[in-house]
Amino acid sequence: MDFSLTEEQQALRQTVREFAREVVAPVIGEHYARGAFPYDIVRQMGQLGLFGLPFPERYGGMGGDYFTLCLAIEELARVDSSVAITLEAAVSLGAMPIYRFGTEKQRDQWLPRLAAGEALAAFGLTESGSGSD
Fold this sequence. Notes:
Butyryl-Coa Dehydrogenase, subunit A, domain 1; about 0% strand
């Protein structure tokens, strides 16, 4: 069994590595200092197609797989874990349930915007007085 990365995976990993180093690293500290969500970074991640990695092109995705998404998350996490988890949560907890369990109308309505990073889906993990803290 060959565990080598494909040329496309290697290229994506390098692109995300450079993005993290050149775009995320120089400004993320300012976002923390202001207590601000990095919308500018999220928009650029959308322009790179990162939010659409595991989704079919029909929905604005890149037609990739979860392993390739993990490569992108790993490269972002080298520089900032919060930006990395934003990508992971937006895809896995936000957009993926729509793709897997939504109606075709919901997929057509939401996935292109989510894949482009024009919208972020939310996920409620807990309830007041119960669940996890």
